[in-house]
Amino acid sequence: MRIARTATAIVIGVDAHIVEVEAHLADGLVGMSITGLADTAVNEARDRVRSAIVCTGYPWPQRRITVGLSPAWLPKFGSGLDLAMALAVLAADDRFDASLLERTVVVGELRLDGRVSPARGVLPIAMAAARWGYNSMIVPRANVAEAALVPGLEVVGVGSLGHALRLIGVDCEAGDEGMDAQPREELKPAAKDLSEVRGQHAAKFALEVAAAGGHHIALLGAPGVGKTLLAERLPSILPPLDIEAALEVTAVQSVLHEGTAGLQTIAPFASPHHGASAAAIVGGGRSNPRVGLITAAHRGVLFLDEAPEFQSSVLEALRQPLESGYVAIARSEFAVVLPARFQLVIAANPCPCGQAFDRRGRCSCTPIQRRKYLAKLSGPLMDRIDVRVIVETPAPHEVALGAEFAGESSATVAARVVAARERQRARWSGTPWRLNAEVPGPVLRRDWPLPSHVTRRFNEQLMEKDQPSARGVDRMLRLAWTCADLAGRAAPDEQDLAIAMRLRDAGGRWAA
Ligand SMILES: [Zn+2]
User: What are 156's strand-pairing partners?
Assistant: First the structure.
């Protein structure tokens, strides 16, 4: 009996796991069996491996072939194991010495003619390979750039099984070398700049505060006033991702798309439709757990437009990731943890008809309809949203011809955001927190008390409120610190507290 081993990997969620492939050739009934795969996948993999080997010019070994995939407990999803299986079979058939691939992870789906298709999840696989002490990888040619993001790995791109054999040093004429990947366009979003949003000074300031302190934000306003325009521009005023975050974001992109356009350094933006299912948004579903849009928004922005129109179950499902920064999906055989640390932006019309703020009284909703509409958002979800802002209809002079591009650019605002974040980093160094939005209220009150002359006026105004809650006050306090950080002050003053109260309460017009 002859045995040869190769290594490959599978991706579950956004994490890769190394899989050992072992091919045995023995006397007996001619055929191929694969252990450690689901039934339907076995048949398909067997057909692809056999056809690819034959098309590459090698005779199919007239032996009893057994291919084992281990560890056995790991569910083997996808088709990226093909190339490693084909190479193991050829090595077991003495076509080359398997020790040539000893410290190499091989990834790629084979087509019937032996060509190698681009794969998903190559970056997480490369990260796992480096972690497990492998020093080289053979990947589909289109995936070379993303695998090469991991330092210390020698990465070889192949276009076909024959090409892979030639690179190992085996004499093989068949099989083309493939083409380098075209960079994917959609990952370079057209620059959306804050200066394109006319007017909306209060809302732009609220967005800046949200960006600086990492606060979740809700935008309330009539249809067409520019809520989406504002939300889409939040990534443009967020700081560029640091290397750790950039690799995490690129790894998610690598799982979601075939072939990435290099390291992603801009905060991602995901905007699910309100009709989307909980599995599409949060992740999960049957068989291989699907990566949801909140994971696509990891380290970036999740925008829920027309938030009251989302299913209650979807809004409910956001609570746990908002709290923990990840989604946990449990299966009988394994558990998957998907990263989901995002900044939430929700937009809502003030009522079902959208005209509740109209000064000419065009709203056709009853008071009960209005209350019920926003009440869908109230409770635990709204509890996590620090900033609530009314987006007003722009004034005529702000939309008049000639008023275009009059506002500050995203770069100008982003510079203030970066400076404010530096102040937070210094203040919270040595704590588990980096941003004001993460700091628990009791800690803020106890360890960073404000002088009584600053708090007096704030407390007076608070007394005038209907039902001030401790948590609401904590949120205002956090916002006041962010306002102070933006203004370059060492601590909030009366003015910062007053602004924070307005940012939280939206002039009392947010009924929820
Ligand atoms: Zn209405």
Answer: 138
